[in-house]
Amino acid sequence: MPKPCKVSGCKLPHDAKGYCKTHYLRWRRTGSTERTRPIYDDGRSIREHLIEKFLNGIRKLETGCWACDTAEGGCKYPRVKIDRGNFGADRMSVHRLSYEHFNGPIPDGMLVCHKCDNPLCCNPDHLFLGNHKDNAVDASQKDRTNFGEKGTNARLTEKQVIEIYKKYDAGISLSEISRQYEVTYQCVFLVVNGTNWKRTYQQHRLRKSA
Question: pTM for the whole thing?
Fold first, then answer.
């Protein structure tokens, strides 16, 4: 039969240092097995405290974007943090706080995206809701994704890809083209059938044939 927790009145089984799991974690976190109260005891929720701290830090920029001077974090999606003492901390990104406060609730599974492409911005007029696909399409339309020559594995330039289209149309074999550009047969095959370099393919092959 497992030993009981050494805290008086606790009937849970011993886990570590003579304490049950609950009391052990509390002892590890606070140095005491006694319950402690959060530092906020004014009847308001943590979310209300986060909003208050966010609003107090708003600074409107000449560009129209808003910065939040009370937020923490690096250059991407700064967050407002509320320290709850022994209960840890609560954090939330300022752009999500801003959207909820000024525009309304964020449905489950939805992202808050930036029209201005400035991840530090929390101006509610610069924010819109979208899913992951919407966010990816928006990034692609604004050339913020690694496509073509921007890709880390790119072996060809856009100029070379267009040349390959012309040579392939002229009847030069894929094997010969791959030797000319010192790439694999598979690489050239994926270029001419549009699997790779999709944007260039659409611009220079599909539009041409339309």
Answer: 0.49
